[in-house]
Amino acid sequence: MASVPSPRSTLAAVAALATALVLAACGTAPTAPPIERLPGAPQSQVPALPASENGNEVALYALSLIDTGYRFGGKNPSAGLDCSGMVSYIFGQAANYRISGSAADIARRGRQIDPSQLRAGDLVFFNTMNKPFSHVGIYLGDGRFVHAPSTNGKVHITRMDNPYFATRFEMARTYFN
């Protein structure tokens, strides 16, 4: 049986992550590669949001939803969230930006980036159901992402190098400049 972290250790982890995000925002970001479209992607891409401030807000808001219950098709925390509903909700609340649809729909928008360029608030996509882009999470930094997996029943943080997710990683996308 997995142990539940104490409120003090959770608060310490959130404080450490917030500090890391603030410090990371002070660095310079690499020049973004040109937009790459997925097969079937619409011709017009969504406009990009300002980078570091909104990305950090998205990541911090995602942390506030840790332990929110999972619900297939869920789009708000009180009823429960699935992975795409979590992303849609967080981007709407933290960045005042509407993203909607399934994980695969969300993967068709934004701009594809190399995983080495991931920053707080970027999206990471996985093939968890033997179909492309069936799961999405929000990258936090330090090799970790927040997501709403059905298997654990709650929004939580997972490492990108977790064997299950590392072998199912498909791509990273950003909605930020």
From TrEMBL:
GO MF terms, alphabetically ordered: cysteine-type peptidase activity
Pfam families: NLPC_P60
Ranges of residues in domain NlpC/P60: 52-176
One GO process term, biological-process aspect: proteolysis
Domain of life: Bacteria
Keyword Transport: no
Keyword Signal: yes
Gene3D superfamilies linked to this entry: endopeptidase domain like (from Nostoc punctiforme)
Signal peptide from the UniProt entry: 1-24
UniProtKB keywords: Hydrolase, Protease, Signal, Thiol protease
Residue intervals passing through the bilayer: none
Family: Belongs to the peptidase C40 family.
Designated name of the protein: NlpC/P60 domain-containing protein
Organism whose genome encodes this protein: Herbaspirillum frisingense GSF30
